[in-house]
């Protein structure tokens, strides 16, 4: 299948034609100005007359004609804002186009050009499938504590929340970094730093985005080409009182006349670096501000994830500016992150290489790689068009009350050296049981008594509670997949023979255990995320999105939810779920 991809950014238009994974045509327009722009085709750069993005998009049909690009089977489009409505790629029809248009005020620098590309392509190829891929959807896994602004409820009810952008890029480079390290992204805590004209950092914890520096709009966070990134919201009142500016004026200036452009007169990091090297003090300050902001987010995300395994740089600046990478990473040896200057100087990024540039002995890997938004969009288009609808079937639902999995050391500490737990009632998953023994949990706020212990023993102690329980304990338990325990809070376990302070306190992410045969029959694969409708006698039916599929031989198909989720769906003990759709895949 040949897929044409439009990636309209805020300062460039990138085009790609992909035959499967192979890119057969590549072009980009950038550095727009009144006298035209740079047009890159393959590796050749020439000047073209288009002064802006709109002109470049209008010039695409002639460009494709000139280069004999034909026999396209589908078209993919990058869209910046998908709100909460678009959780993954979607076939574009009139209704989808209207919904995308409604989101334009939230991405005024991006959605208009992107929509222009959509309209042009739908006009040119009315019979081809057209697919929108959204920057925001990768970040829909962010927990509420990351997406919620502390503002009046009426504002939040109206939709004010954080989203995050550059999701296609963060997803690709995090995955690429994991591959380069020979590890599974599900075992890594990665900070992805995309520094293009727009810039954002993203915390990718065990394969999922848990936070990113852009917010409701692509204005929050890092310093960018023409955007401010973080500013005190108190600035709005100040600017109105002191300069008589109204909100549209302030907003327009924060999007288009701030960032590097405001600090130096040029939005282009190449110019800023050249001027700084020639002794320009404003350019030097701009570089310092830019790097300092990025370094702060890097440190913040290491803290948010409870540790850091890898940092990956991408985007025009992240890929090409060794000095910016150096400045961002300086002073982070306390995190175990040290750069190697020689490796950093000129990493070879050809053929999607992802070289490591950390120093010997650095605990944190540092990777540079070219982003591949167009390739990812082409993949998403192929996958969406090939996707077999999941085969609906009913799935038994089990409600997991609070429980603990203990290590052998923990059993010794709590029940006495050499103690063996007594297996009681068997669980549905073969080989698993509830022990006859119980223990207590204690946190700074309170205590939970008679907590169940599940066997067999595990290499690491893991304590699974509901969100409500975590507040009763006074601890902030993160939502995690089983076994992903680094950086989790410590809780006191109290047994008859002793007590033990152990980390490993989590709220278990909802999931479905299934066997390879059942997964095949349902059209599902390990690691995919699906949507399940829970039906019960209570009439409080609920659709759970993003339920993780865990395929393993010898398992009985069963969905596990916690007591908070069960209460919300009005089920007790056990219930039934029905597979109703597939959500976006994770990394
Ligand atoms: N060699 C380089 N050194 C420093 N910055 C560079 C270099 N090459 C490109 N850049 C910067 O990359 C930014 C554009 O990034 P890019 O990812 O292409 O933009 P977009 O967000 O529009 O896709 C510009 O600020 C440009 O100056
Ligand atoms: C969302 C965003 O900022 O995109 P870009 O970097 O292409 O401007
Ligand atoms: Mg970009």
TrEMBL record:
EC assignment: 2.7.2.1
A cellular component term, taken from the record's GO annotations: cytoplasm
Residues that hold Mg(2+) according to the record: 7, 373
GO molecular function terms listed in the Swiss-Prot or TrEMBL record: acetate kinase activity; acyltransferase activity, transferring groups other than amino-acyl groups; ATP binding; magnesium ion binding
Binding sites annotated in the UniProt record for ATP: 14, 194-198, 268-270, 316-320
Membership in a protein family: Belongs to the acetokinase family.
Quaternary state and interactors: Homodimer.
Protein's UniProt name: Acetate kinase
Organism expressing this protein natively: Paracoccus aestuarii
Originating gene: ackA
């Amino acid at each position: 299948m040949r897929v044409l991809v439009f990636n309209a950014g805020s300062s460039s238009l990138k085009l790609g034609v992909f035959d499967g994974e192979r890119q057969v045509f590549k072009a980009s327009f950038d550095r727009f100005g009144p006298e035209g722009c740079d047009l890159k085709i393959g590796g050749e750069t020439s000047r073209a007359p288009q002064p802006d993005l709109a002109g470049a998009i209008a010039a695409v049909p002639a460009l494709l004609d000139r280069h004999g690009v034909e026999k396209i089977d589908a078209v993919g489009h990058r869209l910046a804002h998908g709100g909460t409505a678009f959780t993954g790629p979607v076939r574009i029809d009139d209704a989808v186009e209207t919904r995308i248009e409604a989101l334009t005020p939230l991405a005024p620098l991006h959605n208009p050009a992107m929509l222009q590309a959509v309209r042009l392509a739908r006009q040119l190829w009315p019979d081809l499938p057209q697919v929108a891929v959204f920057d925001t959807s990768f970040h829909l896994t962010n927990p509420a504590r990351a997406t919620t602004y502390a503002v009046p409820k009426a504002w939040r009810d109206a939709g004010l929340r954080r989203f995050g952008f550059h999701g296609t890029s963060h997803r690709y480079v995090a995955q690429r970094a994991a591959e380069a390290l020979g590890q599974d992204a599900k075992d890594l805590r990665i900070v992805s730093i995309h520094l293009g004209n727009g810039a954002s950092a993203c915390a990718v914890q065990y394969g999922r985005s848990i936070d990113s520096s852009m917010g409701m709009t692509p204005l929050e966070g890092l310093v960018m080409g023409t955007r401010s990134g973080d500013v005190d919201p108190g600035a709005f009142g100040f600017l109105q009182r002191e300069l008589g500016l109204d909100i549209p004026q302030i907003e327009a200036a924060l999007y288009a006349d701030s960032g590097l452009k405001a600090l130096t007169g040029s939005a282009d990091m190449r110019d800023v670096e050249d001027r700084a090297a020639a002794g320009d003090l404003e350019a030097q300050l701009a570089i310092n501000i830019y790097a300092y902001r990025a370094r702060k987010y890097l440190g913040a995300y290491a803290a948010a994830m409870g540790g850091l395994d890898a940092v990956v740089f991408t985007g025009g600046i992240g890929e090409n500016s060794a000095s910016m990478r150096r400045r961002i990473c300086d002073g982070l040896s306390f995190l175990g992150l040290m750069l190697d200057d020689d490796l950093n100087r000129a990493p070879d990024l050809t053929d999607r290489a992802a070289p490591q540039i950390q120093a010997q002995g650095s605990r944190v890997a540092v990777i540079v790689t070219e982003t591949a938004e167009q390739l990812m969009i082409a993949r998403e288009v192929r996958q969406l068009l090939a996707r077999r609808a999941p085969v609906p079937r009913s799935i038994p639902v089990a409600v997991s009350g609070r429980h603990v999995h203990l290590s052998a050391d923990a059993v010794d500490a709590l029940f006495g050296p050499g103690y063996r737990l007594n297996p009681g009632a068997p669980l549905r998953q073969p080989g698993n049981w509830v022990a006859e023994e119980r223990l207590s949990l204690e946190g700074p706020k309170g205590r939970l008594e008679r907590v169940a212990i599940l066997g067999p023993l595990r290499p690491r102690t893991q304590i699974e509670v509901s969100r409500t329980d975590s507040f009763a304990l006074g601890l902030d338990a993160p939502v995690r997949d089983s076994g992903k325990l680094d950086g989790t809070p410590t809780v006191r376990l109290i047994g008859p023979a002793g007590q033990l302070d152990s980390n490993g306190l989590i709220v278990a992410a909802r999931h479905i255990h299934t066997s390879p045969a059942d997964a095949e029959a349902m059209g599902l694969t390990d690691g995919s995320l699906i949507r399940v409708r829970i039906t019960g006698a209570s009439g409080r039916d609920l659709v759970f999105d993003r339920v993780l599929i865990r395929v393993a031989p010898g398992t009985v198909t069963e969905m596990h939810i916690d007591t908070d989720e069960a209460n919300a769906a009005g089920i007790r003990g056990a219930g039934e779920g029905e597979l109703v759709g597939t959500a976006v895949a994770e990394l």
